[in-house]
Every structure is written in C-alpha cells, then in structure tokens.
Amino acid sequence: MKYIVLSVFALLLAGCSSGLRFDDSYTATGQNSRVQYIVLHYTSTDLARSLQLLTEEEVSSHYLIGEAPATIYRLVDENRRAWHAGDSQWQGRTWLNSTTIGIELVNQGFYDTPSGRHWQPFAPAQIDALIVLLKDIMQRHQLAPGSIIAHSDIAPQRKVDPGPLFPWKRLADAGLLSWPDPTEVARQQMLFSASLPSVQWFQEQLARQGYLVPRHGELDEATRNVIAALQMKYRPARYDGEPDAQTAALLMVLAKMAAQH
Asked: Most buried among 39, 74, 134, 255, using CB within 10 Å?
C-alpha cells in the first residue's frame, strides 16, 4: 500500500510540473471589474523625486503623469494592488487600495508663506493627458460617472490632494463626472440663507455622498475637514470648512442628482 500511495503522489507531482490546463470556452455572466473607483493625487514634489518615491519606496501608484511633457508612466499593472490610498474609506468601503486605481499627478501641492497658503496650478497638457487616461480606464472597467474621487475625499483627516486648484469642472465637461447645476445651487442657496440646517444635517448629507464623517451633531475639527474636502471639489474659491448656505445648497443638489441615478 505504501508503494501505491507514493506512486500516485509521484503522478500528481508530474502533472503539476507539466502545467495546469484550463478550458476557457465558458464565461460567467455574473462578474464585473474589481476596480470600483479611481483616486487622484498630487505628488508634492518634482518628476525625478516622484519616480523615485513611487518605484523605490513603500508607496506606489498605478499611473504617474508628468507636467512637461505630460508623459503617462505606468508603474503598477491594473490587475495588481498599488499602495496609494492608505487608511481610507468611501461609501462604506475601507482600505481602498484593493478596489481602486491610483493616479498621481506631478505637482508641488502647496507652500505656506506669511501672506497665506499658495497652491501650484496644474499644467493644461497634464490634465488633457489625465482626461484621456480616465476615459480609457472608465471604459475598460465600465465605471459610472462619480467613480473618480480625490485622495482628500477618502482620507479627509490627513490628506488635501489634489487640492483646490485641481480642475474638477474640466472632468465634468469631459463627461467623466456629474456636476451640480449652478442655477439650482443658487436657488437652493437663497432658501438656506433664511434658515441654515443643523450640523447634524450637514453630517448626514456628507455621509450620503460617501464621506466618513462624525454623526454627533457637533462642529468639530473632523467635521470641518470633511466639509472642506467637499468645498475644495465643488467650491474651491472658499474651503474653510464652514457649514454655510452655499455648501448646504451644494449638498442638496448633489443628493437630488444621486437620487435620479
């Protein structure tokens, strides 16, 4: 019996060493891409340092887009996980490295001076390249508008990238995400100017958008950081984290837009 068992084991090993054979003539309909979102970042440094950090250190990203020229570097295969999101959450999903594609844009971010904080604008050619890349990714993974999010959306307590100068409206004009109608926002703002909702309302509406936000009804620093993240995207002229009438109007319009989809 001992020799029979050994013989069978030897045959199994021989089969494994010759390679597995698969029949791919059937394909299941119950499937979709593992990719749920695309997360946008800036690198906070120049191209050479960005390439070094994203290829030789622990942090990584699927793509890096330079400034001039706006070269697209593919650093991690989309089928593999890049380490770009860190401790993150969006729409109830946590640790988003596993379900996202990370895109880094070479950009210095901001620097502080006695006169205030200054942000570096994004090069137009860089955004042109980004839009082409985003359209390709979204088509291949069948992602809906709204799947493109900021690092500051998924980690508002510790990240601000891609910052208030990132041109989200250009992405909306390219059909990559929905944008609140300014006329409707203005109408809602007039209504909220008469009576501003409670902090609890703001927290609930932010949570509906996907943010991880406290729900205790207090205007603490964590809540202000989340409000500022929303403002940087939809109202970059002022992102002070203040729960004002215009921010309430934006949240109301965004909620109505989500309900229609």
From this structure: 39
